[in-house]
Design brief:
The protein is an alpha+beta fold. It has helices at 3-8, 26-35, 142-157, 187-196, 203-207, 214-232, 259-278, 301-309, 327-333, 345-355, 402-418, and strands spanning 43-44, 61-68, 83-87, 90-92, 94-98, 130-136, 162-173, 176-186, 240-245, 281-287, 297-298, 338-340, 359-364, 375-383, 389-391, 395-398, 429-433, 443-449, 456-457, 463-474, 480-492, 504-510, 519-526, 532-538. Helix content is 24%, strand content 28%.
């Protein structure tokens, strides 16, 4: 497989799928592209659904800011009057402001180590930030990966028995992405999970780090896994601090692509950036590579550009790839930082997590309503109190409304969701067998909580929400056996309370089940927002 073939797997515009796909079943892409034009739209009953659309004129840009003094200590006593926000150099009016003290756990859980934190039940988190530790064994050489594991262990050993924030532990390796432990504040539980985590060698990195399709394979998998994190934790109200301990996805050589394929890769990175920003994910990249050189910490665009010119990008394939299409820039855009070339990895992990305990949140509605495709809006925040430094996201991509690009991104998003080992919680989804007389065998009712959907008011006063519904059957090894997908429309009558958590949009889907099937997965993707929810169920007994 060459760069051209591998890059097709990243396509948001899969109009001609003829290529061998190794991670994601090819037929999902084919079905989504060719079923859409002639799809039959199903209307859910009037016990359906909700959600206000954040339109171009009404959207709120949310910024999380970390402020430190000259000694590097957090400053937590500032007010809204101490900040000025600019977008593309134009002053913006602050609409909302939260000090660090507002980002707290529910009172009942503060001293309870046994509290269960479930992303499907976001109220359990209160407004606290959460920590997501990722051990990258895909983009990190074996010796450095072992160092990263020891550093994670050393960090945890220095923490109190009851962690400040709910923390989850994940690992990424060849063709796999696993949750080693769900969110917990119990340090001993995480240490035990880390100790039991399997050790993997980054074979694609070691054998094809600068040739053939290895870099694209790793880039593709890393982006898919980042999206899984964002979609799984989307409804947790607070900031998500993703501490990515490892090499990070590689920077690839743009001269290896023709202009069309290069645009595909750039579009994909931009799409994942949008998903991370919309779900309040802040990415901290901490590279344990012992031979890393160049800038040791990157916190802004100028430093990221300098690192790229020096050939010091995270990963092993330095190049002058698009300025916003490498791990350095992705971390910076989300308001995180990049650290490499240091041996105090445990300390750097602790500093990144501390940012999640002492941040301000500012919201503003942009004065500009332009949606020029791929335009990057630069954000600058000034602090009026002298002597302080701040870190926040550097901007966002201004794009047409989500529903205009839903068909372009649906195949990529649903391919991520189809074989994901994480439950996706961007939407609250449940399922039940459909046993009505007139429905085919192996039919299921897929219910989506109304307040999670994006509703559009119609002229007659009713509201509609458009979704993709995907059903996947998997064997005992988690590989896809069969699938079915439909774009569907839910309709709510005038007067329906679309903010009522007990109301659902109900969709009926029939999924053929063979003797090879061990598990079923159903995924719903809101066509307007891109939020996804999933539910897994064993094969019903006959």
């Amino acid at each position: 497989m060459n760069f051209f073939q591998a890059s097709r797997r990243l396509s948001l515009l899969m109009t001609k799928v003829r290529l061998p796909l190794t991670r994601v079943a090819q037929y999902i892409f084919i079905a989504l592209i060719f079923v859409l034009p002639g799809a039959t739209f199903l209307h859910a009953q009037d016990n359906e659904p909700h959600t206000a659309t954040l339109t171009v004129n009404a959207r709120l840009v949310v910024l999380d800011l970390v402020v430190r003094d000259k000694d590097g200590k957090p400053v937590t006593d500032l007010g809204a009057k101490d900040f000025r926000v600019f977008e593309d150099g134009i002053p913006q009016s602050i609409r909302s402001f939260e000090p660090p003290s507002a980002h707290a756990l529910p009172a009942a859980t503060v001293s309870n180590a046994a509290t269960m934190f479930d992303p499907a039940q976001p109220a359990t988190f209160g407004q606290t930030a959460v920590t997501v530790l990722v051990l990258d064994q895909l983009n990190t050489h074996f010796a450095d990966s072992s160092f990263a594991r020891r550093s994670l262990r050393d960090y945890l050993l220095k923490q109190p028995e009851l962690l400040t924030q709910p923390t989850s532990l994940l690992t990424i390796y060849e063709h796999n992405f696993e949750q080693l432990h769900a969110f917990t504040r119990d340090r001993a539980t995480l240490l035990k999970a880390l100790e039991a985590a399997p050790v993997h060698n980054a074979w694609t990195l070691e054998t094809s780090n600068s040739a053939d399709y290895g870099p694209i394979e790793r880039l593709d998998q890393s982006l898919h896994d980042l999206e899984q994190i964002a979609q799984s934790y989307a409804r947790i109200p607070g900031r998500k601090n993703v501490i990515w301990v490892g090499g990070g996805f590689p920077t690839v050589d743009p001269t290896s692509f023709d202009s069309h394929d290069l645009q595909i890769v750039q579009n994909t990175v931009q799409h994942i950036t949008d998903v991370l920003l919309s779900t309040r994910v802040t990415l901290y990249a901490i590279d344990p590579t012992s031979s890393a050189s160049g800038v040791v910490e990157i916190t802004n665009a100028d430093m990221a550009d300098a690192a790229s010119l020096m050939g010091g990008s995270l990963g092993v394939n330095a190049g002058t790839f698009d300025a916003n299409a490498d791990f350095d820039h992705l971390s910076m855009i989300t308001g995180g930082r990049v650290v490499r070339g240091r041996n105090d990895i445990g300390k750097q992990i602790a500093l990144a997590i501390d940012d999640g305990a002492s941040f301000y949140t500012i919201g503003y509605s942009p004065t500009s309503t332009s949606t020029s495709a791929a335009q990057f809006r630069k954000i600058r925040v000034d602090c009026l109190r002298p002597g302080l430094t701040m870190v926040t996201r550097s901007g966002y991509f201004a794009e047409p409304a989500q529903h205009q690009k839903a068909a372009e991104t649906a195949s990529y998003d649903l391919s991520t969701a189809a074989e994901s080992k994480l439950q996706l919680n961007g939407l609250h989804v449940t399922e039940a067998p459909e046993t009505s007389v007139n429905v085919p065998p192996s039919s299921f009712i897929i219910r989506v909580s109304a307040p999670g959907l994006d509703w559009t008011r119609q002229e007659d006063g009713s509201s509609v929400a458009t979704v993709y519904v995907l059903g996947v059957s998997l064997n005992s090894k988690g590989k896809i056996v069969d699938h079915i997908d439909h774009p569907m429309i839910a309709t709510a009558k005038l007067g329906t309370n679309l903010r009522d958590e007990t109301r659902t949009a109900d969709f009926v889907i029939t999924l053929p089940i063979s003797s090879k099937v061990a598990r079923l997965r159903f995924v719903v993707r809101d066509s307007a927002t891109g939020r996804m929810g999933s539910v897994d169920t064993p094969v019903p007994a006959h």
